[in-house]
Design goal:
It is a single chain. Helix 1 runs antiparallel to helix 8. The chain has 9 helices and 8 strands. The strands form 2 sheets. Strands 5-4-6-7-8 form a 5-stranded parallel β-sheet, with helices on both faces. A 3-stranded parallel β-sheet has the order 1-2-3, with no helix packed on it. The longest helix has 21 residues. By secondary structure, it is α/β, with parallel strands linked by helices. Strand 6, helix 5 and strand 7 form a beta-alpha-beta unit.
Amino acid sequence: MSGKDHFLVTGRISRDFRRNSDNNSRWGTDLMLLPESQNLTFLTIERSPTSHNEFAIPYPTYFHPTSAVEIRQWQDKIKLTNRTVLFSFAGAQRPSRNYKGLVRTQVIQQCKNSSTTCRFLDCDVKANICDDPISLTKHLESSVFCLQPPGDSLTRRSVFDSILAGCIPVFFSQGSAYKQYIWHIPNNSSEYSVYIPFKKLRNGGKNKIEEILRRIPNEKVVGMRENVIRLVPKIVYTKQNRRHKQDEETLEDAFDIAVKGMIKRIEATRRESQD
């Protein structure tokens, strides 16, 4: 099949493997641009929207359960978490004037404007907290909604940290999740997340985010949180327990779903080649 039944997992975003070798870049490679790579399938934490042979898989989080029991216990825990603020953001400022930098600037400013309902964890000032799994998780668990503007690229690991914390993600770009993780998150995005286009964010006033989130009925919020919590098994990478009992419940994790997606893709390619 000329390599079409092979796949490769990368630990960085797609852009880092699409560097033109002529631009004297000091980092990254042109691996995905090579003719020899065009029949391979790449699994990466962020795919290029124009690529035909890339599929995005979740960023690894801090939580690597060893059994379905641990996952169920975690889900039960975050269902009962007391969420004291409406929304929050954990991240650092991006001074860039491009789209991603402008979105993040707006998000931070609006969070500061809504200081009684939004909690801003500034990772420029409190980097030690942002790098501490327990402190970061507590920050996310305290919030009903977690703001997820683009970072250095369209995607962020924080998307999966927030899902793990049972916090409803708020996106400002379709490319941050909806067009990325098609194997791992459902198509009905409004059932587990909020989408605020940048135009609405920029032209809607200094408290637009708060206004939008406050308008969502409580029963809708409860249902969205339940759907977020249901996603937890699909976005974590479990640490296999060798003492697993045959009669114990098993759940598909992010790895299982990625492999299943690849098998389906290879089988479809094989059928096409035989027709």
